[in-house]
Amino acid sequence: MKNRLKVLRAERDWSQAELATRLDVSRQAVNAIETGKHDPSLPLAFRIARLFDMPIEEIFHDEA
């Protein structure tokens, strides 16, 4: 699954650690999601969408 998390984070000038704190996850989890090594759980995807005030579909999308 592709995502825009890194771009959205950079637009706000947040480090991975800052984003992780805001989402209550580890910095390593943020890195794994940004690099596509891990897909977020549905509750985490909703937290990310709320944080950026965007629909989930605008942040995450299938590679197909």
Keywords:
64 residues; 434 Repressor (Amino-terminal Domain); two-stranded antiparallel ribbon
Notes on the structure:
The protein is 59% helix and 6% strand. It has one domain (2-55): lambda repressor-like DNA-binding domains (434 Repressor (Amino-terminal Domain), Orthogonal Bundle). It is mainly α. Helix 2 (16-23) crosses helix 3. The protein has helices at 5-11, 16-23, 27-34, 42-52, 56-59; strands at residues 2-3, 60-61. The radius of gyration is 11 Å and the shape is globular. Strands 1-2 form a two-stranded antiparallel sheet.
Structure described in brief:
The protein has five helices and two strands; from the N terminus they run βαααααβ.
Indicate the mean pLDDT.
96
Runs in which pLDDT lies below 50 for 5 or more consecutive residues are none
Strand order of the largest sheet: 1-2
CATH superfamily membership: lambda repressor-like DNA-binding domains
Overall structural class, as computed from helix and strand content, comes to mainly alpha
The tally of strands reads 2
What gyration radius follows from the Cα positions, in whole Å? 11 Å
CATH architectural group:
Orthogonal Bundle
**What is the fold-level CATH name, i.e. the topology?**
434 Repressor (Amino-terminal Domain)
DSSP helix count? 5
| Percentage of β-strand residues | 5-15%
